[in-house]
Amino acid sequence: MGRYLIRRLLQAIPVLLGATLLIYAVVFALPGDPIASMSGEKRMDPDIVGILRDQYHLNDPFIVQYWHYISGVFQGDFGRTFAGVEVSEIIASKFQVTLNLAFTALVMEAVIGVGLGLYAALRRGRAQDTLVLASTLVLISIPTLVTGFVLQLLLGVKLKQSTGIEIFPVAGVSDGLRSYLLPAFVLAGTSIAYLARLTRTNLAETLRADYIRTAVAKGLPRRRVIGRHALRNALIPLVTYLGADLGTLMGGAVITETIFNLPGIGQELFRSVYERQQPVVVGIVTLLVLVYILANLIVDLLYAVLDPRIRYE
Amino acid sequence: MRVFKGAKIIAGAALLSLGLAACGSGTSTGDAGGADQPVRMRIGEPQKLFYPSDTVESEGAEVLASIFAPLVKYDEDKKPVEFVAESIKTNDNRVWTIKIKSKFTWHNGEKLIAQNYVDAWNYAANQENAQSTNYFFARVRGYDALNPGEGKTPSTDKMSGLRALDEETFQVTLKQPFSQFLTMLGYSAFYPLPKAAFDDNGKVTEAYAKKPIGQGMFQIDKPYNKGTDQTINLTQYEGFPLDKPKFKKLQFKVYNSAETAWNDLQAGNIDIQEQLPPSAISAAKAELGDRYIDQEDASIGYLGFPLVASDVYDDPRIRRAISMAIDRKTITETVFSGTRAPADDFINPLLPGYRPGACQACVYDPEGAKKLYEEANGPRTLQLGSNMDNGHKEWIEAVANNLRSNLGVTVELDQVEKFQEILDRLEAKQYTGMFRSGWLIDYPSAENYLTPVFSTGAIKTGANYAGYSNTDFDRLLAKGDSAASLEEGLKYYQQADDLLLRDLPMIPIFYYRMNAAFSEHVRGVRINLLNQVEWASVEKVA
């Protein structure tokens, strides 16, 4: 197990390095001079542009620029934006917000999604089951943009206007966990629905397996049959889904972050690509690659926990 | 019970998440009823730290305008009137003597002196400092010595045309007479800087740019961490000698989305929002009553012709016909929901010098356009280039449809992400079609709609992207610049404008409008012609 873990972590190093080079090259290849476009649609004095390009080493060949960047990274210097702000500072603060959002969303997925699936599976074919299936289908088919604005208007604006009490803040992160509830639900919406359906199907299938019939025949209590025998087996695909989803939640939250004005990684990435801020883009994307790698690793390790037959040596 | 280990991990994560969330800044933003609650205004994220001479975008300028006070402000007739300046005198429009009021102090208690202006302007004009407002000082004598060009080092760090006469008076000598110089002085590039802003090498420090010390109505509470801070908090400066606002605290809140800010305004979490999203206009009009502001804005949107890059559009009849084929009224009403107004002059209606209906080719006339276009034997295929950000995609498509149906031509759209790409490709002659463009004035004078966009000198350094060059036009501008007064200058500028209206190197399509709203917690919100709130007139409603 220990050796397996070390091997996996060592494998991550070339992947991360490769990612930085690739992303750096992609941003480099985008058209539009970052300095000249800083003044919006007005043309900056060409001499001033030249002087600034020199200051930021933008006149060097690609590989020299990349070397400047990556050698800085190894010394713990992640570079500065064109506005002179430390990239590490920006990422640290934005990552915090995204982490809060993603984990709140993940918890919602796990609790609501699995809960609904469990509920539906145990009442298969009945009205409650149909209701869960229908409502999750609706949730899947509405885009985040719509759920985001509709819920913000109804639960944020209208609820406060009619009651005078603020339950769900409209935007921002100044109200602690409360700020994240609505955006996390919007972000997790589709996944909740998928997860509910996945749980329902898996559990329903497992419940028909021979070993479950044996367990019931042995006279085990229903709670133990479902909780210990059926659910545990049905959890494996769910854990896979949740693990892969963590990366999506962190990197793909641009729309949700914008609607609810959460200063997170998604928005920052969007803006940085637009402004051609290479160090920021590379920093964020590399971090996301790292999150994917770690999430996958944790998922693999969880397999061993859930299924004793799986062993890593 | 191993299955529940997973549950524990998840629960742990949830706790972690809660803990992290609780670490966020703790200020609650409830109702603004309390006396200590600030007046809250939406801004977008400032592009840079607060270097006054390096701020050319509206968000940073809005914050700076609350921290600094300008030499002149503009009155109801859009004429400059002294504010920090006691008097501004000139005999020949070339040598300007500026005396400042004696009672102004910096937020650190030091007295505001004439040398503060001299220091700040020399700093801004020096190419070594690469300040984006550098070009504002190009009319001052001695500017060239500070700007020998890339790769060369300036021989001095002072402009010869700028000197302090005594503690309260300084003198600016221009290269050429410029009748509009007074109107420039209200802009943020001309703010002074205190001694404390500079380090030993004469550079403005980063610490200063994070927590600027100004001489305006408000002082900033703590250093601004760009990229991290979502609010900028300010407190009224007790030592401000002129009309003070009737509230103590001001807060700027950063929102990237105008739609979100509008929702938060309705929920009572912000008090003032400039630039409402088009989707909010009808609701704002219907529900807010006099808390909705719809006024003129100084920006113009154009369609430009590549006069340098191509000879397809050389016949002015083609340009005129294209202009006549565009239904400006319908586009501004439907595509923009009234957040734009149809353009009918190169000078914006906000400013003296505008003549309604001056642009006869801006009148929608599909039949006349088609006839003229065929007479001039216009090209059968037109290219139309635009950037798609900032809501430009939709109106460009509407224009393309107008041209297709009214002129019977094929229109190829060439859409790129950013305007800079169009410029780069025009310059390299890789793109030779029509293109969208726009202009926001730097200072409120009719002259600023002409010189930087259409003069021959602006081809290389300004916004003359069409490449229009007309010696008669340049001569009229020079006459206006050296005229004895603002009013007399205006006559020449209007004559220059007439030449543009005849030649149409670009065609004006629309004027922007300022659509703003404010909450019921404040009253007396007025927005000036630089699109900045006049804080002195704002009051909180208990």
From TrEMBL, chain A:
Chief site of localization: membrane
Subcellular location: Cell membrane
Database matches in CDD domains: TM_PBP2 (cd06261)
One BP term from GO: transmembrane transport
GO cellular component: plasma membrane
Lipid bilayer topology: Multi-pass membrane protein
Keywords: Cell membrane, Membrane, Transmembrane, Transmembrane helix, Transport
Occurrences of domain ABC transmembrane type-1 (ranges): 95-303
UniProt superkingdom: Bacteria
TM stretches of this protein: 12-30, 101-122, 131-157, 177-196, 238-260, 280-306
Cross-referenced PROSITE patterns: ABC_TM1 (PS50928)
Classification via Pfam families: BPD_transp_1, BPD_transp_1_N
Family: Belongs to the binding-protein-dependent transport system permease family.
Protein name per UniProt: Peptide ABC transporter
Originating species: Planobispora rosea
TrEMBL record, chain B:
Keyword Signal part of the UniProt annotation: yes
A Gene Ontology cellular-component term: periplasmic space
A GO biological-process term: peptide transport
Keyword terms, alphabetized: Signal
Signal peptide: 1-24
The keyword Signal appears for this protein: yes
Domain Solute-binding protein family: 80-458
Gene Ontology terms, MF aspect: peptide transmembrane transporter activity
Protein name: Putative peptide ABC transporter DppA
Top-rank taxon, per record: Bacteria
InterPro entries xrefs: Peptide/Ni-bd, SBP_5, SBP_5_dom
Listed PANTHER family: ABC TRANSPORTER SUBSTRATE-BINDING PROTEIN (PTHR30290:SF83), PERIPLASMIC BINDING COMPONENT OF ABC TRANSPORTER (PTHR30290)
